[in-house]
Automatic annotation (TrEMBL):
Keywords: Iron, Metal-binding, Oxidoreductase. It holds the Pfam family DIOX_N. InterPro entries: DIOX_N, IPNS-like_FE2OG_OXY, IPNS-like_sf, Oxoglu/Fe-dep_dioxygenase_dom. This is Fe2OG dioxygenase domain-containing protein. The keyword Thylakoid does not apply. The lineage of its organism: Eukaryota, Viridiplantae, Streptophyta, Embryophyta, Tracheophyta. The keyword Acetylation does not apply. Residues 167-272 form the Fe2OG dioxygenase domain.
Length: 311
């Protein structure tokens, strides 16, 4: 069960006091790797349309959804049990079903793998998802410039090193079932994991279920609820940013528990250009605290993590 007393800050992205926002983000990233953003620039209407399209798709019969099953480029539909975010889980797989969409801007060839539901049945799907991807990218870039400031770097640091030059941004639409079979007692909507990349921007339909564990090596583990806040989105740091910051910023274990109620969410993952080498930032190491990780090409790291999820 969840306990604890989590106080995650809500960072107002419209605030002109960038220093205060950066300080608040730094504290959150050091303590938990999670925070909220308000005035994030994604309007309610667009979020509502994303959730409406998502719901309409997940309501299709399984055979129709399976026609768009996830391909080798990691785009498309994954049914319940297809993914196990916690490799040590004793269950066959997580309860959720998902749909992956990659950004298609800038002639980004790697995203040619996208699969789209039929335009006849889903006339608004493609435009809605593409607009959401583009808008979420803008929001994430704003957050990353505050993160750069919070690390005593130039606000344009990630832009300048080429992280946003054909970034690998992906939207994962998620649907968690309301009722679960008895054999799934104890199974999770999404089992415990940390996100692999740089930054995640998460929108939920308001249904609870998301929990974080700030000390993964502590026994017993303490899981704390991350409640929905109207008008705010959830942000969390991924493993690549943890590597970049030499674990000064935390990529925290999280999961989604079954709450007996259907749940929808949309997770936007921003990962850097696959050729970018992620290596410890100078401001995050010193003689007494040397780099913990070897430099790694972002694309290689993400490929390895993805393949472990689908073993
Ligand atoms: O649905 C959620 O609240 C969390 C989803 C998540 O952690 C993920 O997709 O990586
Ligand atoms: Fe996650």
């Amino acid at each position: 069960m969840a306990a604890g007393n989590l106080h995650l800050p809500v960072v107002d992205l419209a605030s002109t006091n960038l220093r205060a926002s950066a300080e608040s983000i730094r504290k959150a990233c050091v303590e938990s790797g999670f925070f909220y953003v308000s005035n994030h620039g994604i309007d309610d209407g667009l979020l509502e349309r994303v959730f409406a399209e998502s719901k309409k798709f997940f309501e299709l019969p399984l055979e129709e959804k399976m026609a768009l099953q996830r391909n080798s480029g990691h785009r498309g539909y994954t049914p319940p049990y297809a993914e196990k975010l916690d490799a040590s889980s004793k269950f066959e797989g997580d309860l959720k079903e998902s749909f992956y969409i990659g950004a298609t801007g800038n002639g980004n060839l790697q995203n040619d793998a996208n699969q789209w539901p039929s335009e006849e049945q889903f006339p608004a799907w493609k435009d809605t998802m593409k607009l959401y991807l583009a808008t979420a990218l803008v929001t994430c870039k704003r957050i990353l410039s505050l993160i750069s400031l919070s690390l005593d770097l130039d606000a344009e640091f990630f832009q300048n090193i080429g992280a946003f030059n054909c970034p690998s941004d992906v939207l994962r639409l998620l649907h968690y079932p309301g009722e679960v079979n008895e054999c799934d007692n104890g199974n999770y909507g999404a089992s415990a994991h940390s996100d692999y990349g740089m930054l995640t921007l998460l929108a939920t339909d308001g249904t609870p279920g998301l929990q974080i564990c700030r000390e993964k090596d502590r026994h017993p583990q303490l899981w704390e609820d991350v409640p929905h806040i109207d008008g705010a989105l959830i942000v969390n740091i991924g493993d690549l940013l943890e590597r970049w910051t030499n674990c000064v910023f935390r990529s925290t274990l999280h999961r989604v528990v079954a709450v007996g109620k259907e749940r929808y969410s949309a997770a936007f993952f921003l990962d850097p250009n696959p050729d970018l080498v992620v290596q410890c930032l100078e401001s995050c190491c010193c003689e007494a605290y040397p780099p913990r990780f070897a430099p790694i090409r972002s694309g290689d790291y993400l490929k390895e993590r993805l393949s472990a999820t689908y073993k």
